[in-house]
Backbone:
């Protein structure tokens, strides 16, 4: 279903609400998903992103090659990512669509331990990794030490006073592949199926999806339903630690698994030839290991705030998620206004609201720009804490992971493209992202605001690519 026709079809491809992504996953949000992994509440469920509406807008009998590279950088020497990606899509004369997407991520930098800062230097310890005759640390910058009594060899890292403790020098790579197929079953009915998998040195993920869409009212109404199943394997570099055990240089336990079932249902309605509305509801249920094996929390003196020990975090092994999405796209001539909002809530107590707006602005016959803004607000998980006071007994669940904190975030973006010909398009995008604390800022017992507990980030991402059509 195509609503508007213009020269070279660029505006129709931009509008194309029936085939638009449910949630934008370009630029910075995509990098966040890579970095945050499946424990990040901002990361979209597979079912949110993969359904019959995600197919590109191509003419019958065409092949599209799309390649791009994303650069992502957080402030303060934190995470940096380089992500090249390439996709192949074949839209047959019979309206079948075959697609393959390849992604490679290279991640470096530093991420917060979860420990609270202090007025003196702090030392953190982790196991070493022996591969053959070579001793690996899993991250650079540490000092290898051997305990004279136990003979245990470990890595120690020291963090300066008044500094947010960061696990620095890590490196990791991820490869991912996605296969998709969409076919018309009957007039107005489309079936879409897909498989995808990703591999990291300490994490593997495999997923399959299927969705069905049906047109009504002379193709002005489309109803869709979809299901996605995901199996993840967490295999930390030095094993899986026992939740709430002391941070140590001893090798930990075996790998752990997690399964996620996601469902999505949606309605897309053509209001006028130039205006389309979309509504979607998604549900997700995750069971299994959802703790971050690298995150810790400080147990501190309840009077002075001085660190006494560091414990590995603990999260529930069950999580249900609900999300509601509403989107609108309106074309006024060659200009297209895109507005959307999303509300999310899960059983961990996190609620979030996302609002996005962008404007497609043509420049001449072959170029366009798209300025955009995205606002995000999130409440904290009900087991989030910056530290654990020594006068309290150990809770069943607790985490100081900054991704589970309450915060606000704003993203400003500018993208654009230029068509060298009817079959070749160059495009680029830049995003600026800033996080600020939502609600009351935490303080260590007996301390002032010089010891900052909020681990918010500023980041920038740049993407450039080329699209070829045959």
Residues:
């Amino acid at each position: 279903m195509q609503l508007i026709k213009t020269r070279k079809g660029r505006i129709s491809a931009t509008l194309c609400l029936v085939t638009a992504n449910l949630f934008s996953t370009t630029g910075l949000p995509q990098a966040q998903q890579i970095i945050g992994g499946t424990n990040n509440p901002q990361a979209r469920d597979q079912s949110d992103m993969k359904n019959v509406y995600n197919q590109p807008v191509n003419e019958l009998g065409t092949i599209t090659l799309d390649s791009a590279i994303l650069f992502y950088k957080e402030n303060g020497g934190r995470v940096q990512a380089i992500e090249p990606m390439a996709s192949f899509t074949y839209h047959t004369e019979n309206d079948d669509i075959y697609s393959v997407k390849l992604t490679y991520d290279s991640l470096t930098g530093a991420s917060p331990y979860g420990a609270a800062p202090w007025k003196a230097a702090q030392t953190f310890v982790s196991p070493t990794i022996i591969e053959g005759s070579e001793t690996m640390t899993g991250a650079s910058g540490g000092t290898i030490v051997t305990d004279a009594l136990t003979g245990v060899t470990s890595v120690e890292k020291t963090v300066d006073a008044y500094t947010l403790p960061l696990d620095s020098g890590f490196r990791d790579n991820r490869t991912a592949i996605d296969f998709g197929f969409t076919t018309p079953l009957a007039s107005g009915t489309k079936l879409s199926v897909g498989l995808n998998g990703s591999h990291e040195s300490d994490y593997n993920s495999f997923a399959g999806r299927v969705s069905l869409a049906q047109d009504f009212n002379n193709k002005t109404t489309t109803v869709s339903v979809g299901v996605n199943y995901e199996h993840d394997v967490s295999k930390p570099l030095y094993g899986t630690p026992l939740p709430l055990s002391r941070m140590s240089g001893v090798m930990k336990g075996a790998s752990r698994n997690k399964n996620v079932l996601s469902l999505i249902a949606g309605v897309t309605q053509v209001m006028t030839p130039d205006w389309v509305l979309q509504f979607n509801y998604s549900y997700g249920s995750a069971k299994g290991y959802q703790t971050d094996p690298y995150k810790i929390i400080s147990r501190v003196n309840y009077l002075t705030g001085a660190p006494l020990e560091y414990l590995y975090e603990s999260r529930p092994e069950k999580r249900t998620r609900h999300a509601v999405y509403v989107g609108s796209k309106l074309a006024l001539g060659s200009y297209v206004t895109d507005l959307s909002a999303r509300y999310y809530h899960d059983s961990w107590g996190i609620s979030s609201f996302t609002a996005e707006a962008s404007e497609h602005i043509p420049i001449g016959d072959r170029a366009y720009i798209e300025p955009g803004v995205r606002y995000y607000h999130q409440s904290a998980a009900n087991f989030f804490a910056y530290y654990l006071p020594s006068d309290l007994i150990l809770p069943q669940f607790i985490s100081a992971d900054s991704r589970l904190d309450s915060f606000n975030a704003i993203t400003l973006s500018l993208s654009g493209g230029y068509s060298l010909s009817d079959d070749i398009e160059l495009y680029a995008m830049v995003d600026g992202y800033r996080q600020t604390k939502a609600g009351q800022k935490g303080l260590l017992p007996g301390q002032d605001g010089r010891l900052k507990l909020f681990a918010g980030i500023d980041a920038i991402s740049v993407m450039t690519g080329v699209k070829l059509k045959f």
Notes: Residues 27-36 form the longest helix (10 residues). The radius of gyration is 24 Å. Residues 1-56, 132-139 have pLDDT under 50 and may be disordered. The domain at 7-110+174-469 is CATH 2.40.160 (Porin).
